Structure formats: structure tokens, C-alpha cells
Amino acid sequence: MASALAPASFSLVRPAVAGLRFPGADPRLAIHVASRCRSAPSAGRGTRAAATMAKKSVGDLAAADLEGKRVLVRADLNVPLDDSQNITDDTRIRAAIPTIKHLINNGARVILTSHLGRPKGVTPKLSLAPLVPRLSELLGIHVQKADDAVGPEVEKLVSALPNGNFVLLENVRFYKEEEKNDPEYVNDAFGTAHRAHASTEGVTKFLKPSVAGFLLQKELFQTLKRPFAAIIGGSKVSSKIGVIESLLEKCDILLLGGGMIFTFYKAKGHSIGSSLVEDDKLELATSLLKKAKEKGVSLMLPIVVVIADKFAPDASSQVVPASAIPDAWMGLDIGPDSISAFSSALETTQTVIWNGPMGVFEFDKFAVGTKAIAKKLAELSGKGVTTIIGGGDCVAAVEKAGVADSMSHISTGGGASLELLEGKELPGVAALDEA
């Protein structure tokens, strides 16, 4: 889709090479839980699984490979903006900085591209312009922004770009060709790696080499240290079926929270009051419990929950056994004893992945369980445990709890993070050059 790049250019997608060490990258931060893993001996605290897919990364390229070269970097700068166009969470921008700095420090001429929101054609309020001040501040240089993503003016800008500088192109989704995967692009955008778009997958057919940036490497690859625990929350079992099934093949401990637990409790014949339940998933819940037992995975459900008489921030509440919720009451959070039990289980771990809140954390009254888990993970991280926050609501939760900086890694992908946990192949990763 882009005509701004000459054959001398190449594309860069977040670093994704197992076992490599990259300048400025913390090796603890990367993780790969996709399906292509080989089983390892399970005794003691050894390796549970090891990544087998190797892709080239920017760390494989020498300074001579970068100086003077035009590098198209597909980043995920899809950050939330308030009504005044102010950035309310710059996590994704900060995550892209190491790759950009590495390239410009090695004399590359960087063409940075991203999307923002879901525009239908050119949509001024979804311009990348509000990102320029924060990018400039983090990089310590003035960021030049193009008024478009393609075309003659962009070509002129790119051609005149000095070594060690970069230009930010306009929102790539202003063009329908992006999502239709018309040819051309670099990729450091894990949050969009699960989509076969022009800037994440199509471009790799035309620009060589196509490699991963540091952020993608962090998201994808690392040997899992045992014991390995996964904490899965959220409202529905149906949205996490693939994730749970995949994790039962990999983890030692699986902690479940959120509204999904009531489907499991109803499947076990317990009273759940008016709590959220998926009646068509009762058999599935039973099979997952059985599979966990067969696999030797310690699957833990909350033993007590906080219930409410209505779904509202000012609802009356009480703590009851999760298996005995009164009629007309609904579970909205995990209770104190559940927090204690989960915390004790997590004390035994070396790696923890968290995806999904423990309750309705949007309501302060029912955010206690989610905040407690966030703080526990921060504590464990300080003890050397690798803690990975798997995108989505959990990112907001650790930010709200004030412990985001304590985590080993916070994923920038929502849907991509879930698909990775499920073991699905991500088009934006599969398209990269093999190591």
C-alpha cells in the first residue's frame, strides 16, 4: 500500500528470537506460550516448555546494516485519548521507544507508522498528531510528522530524512488498503500482530529483511520457569476457553476469578444466586475441571466471594462461601479468604501470567480482589518472580493499583495477547524472516 519506500529499505518487526539478548532489553520480559513448544522434564523447578520458533530481530543486525538505511517500523501507538485529545495512558508509546532509539542511534532513517482507533477513512480526531509531544519528550528529539501515510509528499520527506532521524506517518488506517492487506511495511506492533494487515504482514513480502523489534521479542519469547502459574479472570468462560485449554498444557497452577467462576460452580451443582452464568457452557466447565485433574494442574476457584444485591457501585454487599450464594444476590468480587488462598499459591511460583480481573474492578467497592492480586504480583516481582500482565483490563488494573512499574512485563496487546496464550499463530509474527 505504501510507495514511500525504495528497495534499499527494509522492514522491522518487534524482536522475536528465542534465547537472544538484545541491548537494553531485559531477558525476563519476554515470553512465548504459543503451541509450538517442546515438553521438558517436569521434576523440580526446571523448564516446563521452551520456545522453538525463531525469527530474526533487529538485534541480529549490525550497525553497518542499519546506518543510512530506511527502516519502516510498524509500532502500536494506539493509545487512549480523552475528549481534549490528551493521552491518558502512554504505555504503548513507552514500549516502542527502545526499538526507535536503537535504530536512530545506529544511524538508521526511521519511518514510523501506526494506527489509532478504527477510522472510516480520514478522520481528523484520530490523527496521530497528539502523540508527537510525548514521542518527542521520550526520545529527546523533535519528532517530525507527515500529514499523510502515502503519496508524493511522504516520499519527499522520507528521501530528505537525515541519518539518525525519523518521521512519523499519519494514521495508516485512514486507508482501506491497510486492513485489506494491500502490499507494503516494519513491525514492532504486538497489539496488531494477530491481524494480517498490510503494515504487519503484507509488507514483509516486499521489504527485506523483515525482522522483529525489541518489544515483539519481549512479548513472544522466553523459557518458562517452573512452577508456572496463570491467573485468568473476566466475565465469561466462552471468551477464555482457548486460553484455559492451552494453559492446562503448560502451567502448574491455574487460578480462576471474575464472573466466569459461577459457571464452574453451577456445573458443580452449587447455588450461585443471580450471578452471571453461561448455561450452555456447563458441560465445558465440567470437562475443564476434569482435564485439570488429569493433567496434574492445580486449578483453584475462589472459596469465598463478595456478593451484592444489585449490579451497581453503591450496592449492599456481604461475604459468603462461593458455593452458597443466596437467591437474588450476585457475586462481584473474590473474598478475603480467596485472596489469601490465591496469594499462598502464588508464593510457590517462578513465573506468573495474569489475564482478566478478579471482579467488577470498575466499581471501587468490588475492586479489592483485583487490587490485591496486582499488589501480590508486584511483591513477587520484587522477589525475582517473572510477572507478565497479559493485556486488556489487567493493564488498567495494575495502573489503578499503582504497581505497573513493578511488573516484569506488561503486554501491549489485548486480542493478540489472548491469541498468543491460546497458542494461535499470529500473522504478523509468522511473516518475519527466520533466524
From TrEMBL:
Gene Ontology terms describing biological process: gluconeogenesis; glycolytic process
Q: Which residues bind ATP?
A: K240, G331, E362
Q: Which InterPro entries match?
A: Phosphoglycerate_kinase, Phosphoglycerate_kinase_CS, Phosphoglycerate_kinase_N, Phosphoglycerate_kinase_sf
Q: Name one GO molecular function term.
A: ATP binding
Q: Name one Pfam family in it.
A: PGK
Per UniProt, (2R)-3-phosphoglycerate binds at R92, R173, R195
Per its Swiss-Prot or TrEMBL entry, what cofactor is needed?
Mg(2+)
Task: Kindly indicate whether the keyword Ribosomal protein belongs to this entry.
Answer: no
* A GO term from the CC aspect: cytosol
Q: Keyword annotations for this protein?
A: ATP-binding, Kinase, Magnesium, Nucleotide-binding, Transferase
The subunit structure is:
Monomer.
Name recorded for this polypeptide: Phosphoglycerate kinase
Name its species. Miscanthus lutarioriparius
